[in-house]
């Protein structure tokens, strides 16, 4: 069975058993009940534009808009084991109200990929599941939640004031970066790195662990159990190693895939 057929089946089953929140002109617009979207933890994943292109297989497809200068949102991901519902559509007009913020904080860094396509992809993969939580129960609410969280965590300033600055020469110990972020997140985060052509470790993502109610927490073990079962969470990168130093590379708009060459 294809993924789409699974979705269709899931929606049909949901309809038959009355697990559907609402209908929009006959479309199933949201499954609210377990087991389809049974999740307890979520992750806000932020990405560093400076190293994002190092992690891509096809390095020619990357482009960092000049307006992007800070950490950006990759996604807000409930840790779920069921299927999300592909039958809950998002339209560009749904997001009009927060489009300026999304454009700044949640840009696509892939050349030629319309920002909305990126947002829609994230909504289909993750948002439809998040929507089983009332506070994120519509496309607009989901994207607003992510934006609110991103703004709540001012990592750009915190890093700067801890002396963790972008550089191609200086690298940092894992513990120094963790230490700088601990006042913001406690222990509720993971660092992800990519390895560049010279074998250096470059910091690429920050995964922030949250409960359903958008507060920090949810144990790592719980998250990892679910993660191991889900291929689509395998975004670029690996946990930053502790036995070597980590580069926090500058954003190179001209040559984004080799920021230090
Ligand atoms: C939902 O998840 C919780 C926690 O992982 C689990 O205990 C429960 O059995 C699950 N419920 C269903 C219906 O899958
Ligand atoms: C990389 O992407 C470009 C632009 O989409 C394409 O023309 C090229 O064939 C791709 N290269 C590889 C190796 O896939
Ligand atoms: C980047 O983050 C800093 C610190 O929070 C903020 O002052 C600045 O306005 C942000 N710049 C952009 C372009 O988002
Ligand atoms: C959020 O959820 C967690 C776990 O269920 C709970 O411990 C915490 O008190 C909740 N926080 C708020 C502000 O509701
Ligand atoms: C660090 O540890 C990893 C795996 O444990 C190993 O593959 C790698 O070679 C080590 N790197 C250094 C610089 O020691």
Characterization of the model:
With 261 residues, the protein is of the alpha+beta class. The protein folds into two domains: 1-35, no CATH class; 36-247, Alpha-Beta Complex (Ribonuclease Rh, Chain A). Helices cover 32% and strands 17% of the residues. The chain has eight helices and eight strands. The strands form two sheets. Strands 3, 4, 5, 6, 7 and 8 form a six-stranded mixed beta sheet that branches. A two-stranded antiparallel sheet has the order 1-2. The termini are far apart. The model is unreliable at 1-35 (pLDDT under 50). It binds 2-acetamido-2-deoxy-beta-D-glucopyranose (5 copies). One 2-acetamido-2-deoxy-beta-D-glucopyranose is lined by residues 211, 213, 215.
Strand content: 15-25%
According to CATH, what is the class of the largest domain?
Answer: Alpha Beta
Q: SSE string, helix = H, strand = E? A: HEEEHEHHHHHEEHEE
* DSSP summary, beta strand count: 8
CATH-defined fold name of the largest domain: Ribonuclease Rh, Chain A
Q: Biggest sheet, in brief?
A: 6 strands, mixed
Number of domains: 2
What ligands can be seen in this structure? Answer: 2-acetamido-2-deoxy-beta-D-glucopyranose
The helical percent reads: 25-40%
Radius of gyration from the alpha-carbon trace, in angstroms? 19 Å
Put simply, the count of helices is 8
CATH architecture of the largest domain: Alpha-Beta Complex
C-alpha termini separation: 46 Å
Low-confidence stretches are: 1-35
Nearest-integer average pLDDT: 83
Give the quaternary arrangement of the chains.
single chain
Estimated structural class: alpha+beta
Keywords: Signal
GO cellular component, one term: lysosomal lumen
Family: Belongs to the RNase T2 family.
GO biological process, one term: RNA catabolic process
């Amino acid at each position: 069975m294809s993924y789409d057929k699974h979705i269709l089946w899931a929606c049909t089953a949901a309809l038959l058993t009355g697990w559907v929140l609402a209908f929009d002109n006959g479309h199933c617009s949201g499954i609210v009940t377990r087991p389809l979207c049974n999740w307890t933890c979520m992750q806000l994943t932020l990405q560093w534009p400076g190293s994002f292109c190092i992690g891509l297989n096809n390095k020619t497809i990357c482009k960092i808009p000049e307006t992007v200068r800070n950490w950006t949102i990759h996604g807000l991901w409930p840790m779920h084991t069921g299927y999300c519902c592909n039958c809950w559509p998002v339209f560009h007009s749904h997001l009009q109200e927060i489009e300026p913020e999304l454009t700044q904080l949640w840009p696509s860094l892939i050349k030629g990929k319309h920002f909305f396509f990126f947002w829609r992809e994230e909504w289909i993969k993750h948002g439809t599941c998040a929507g089983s939580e009332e506070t994120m129960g519509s496309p607009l609410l989901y994207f607003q939640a992510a934006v609110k969280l991103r703004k709540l965590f001012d990592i750009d300033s915190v890093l700067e004031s801890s002396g963790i600055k972008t550089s191609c020469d200086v690298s940092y110990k894992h513990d120094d970066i963790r230490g700088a972020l601990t006042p913001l997140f406690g222990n509720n985060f993971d660092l992800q790195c990519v390895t560049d052509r010279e074998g250096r470790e470059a910091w690429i993502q920050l995964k922030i662990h949250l409960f359903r109610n958008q507060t920090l927490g949810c144990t790592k073990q719980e998250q990892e159990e679910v993660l191991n079962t889900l291929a689509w969470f395998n975004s670029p990168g690996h946990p930053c190693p502790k036995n070597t130093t980590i580069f926090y590379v500058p954003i190179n708009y001209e040559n984004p895939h080799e920021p230090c060459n």
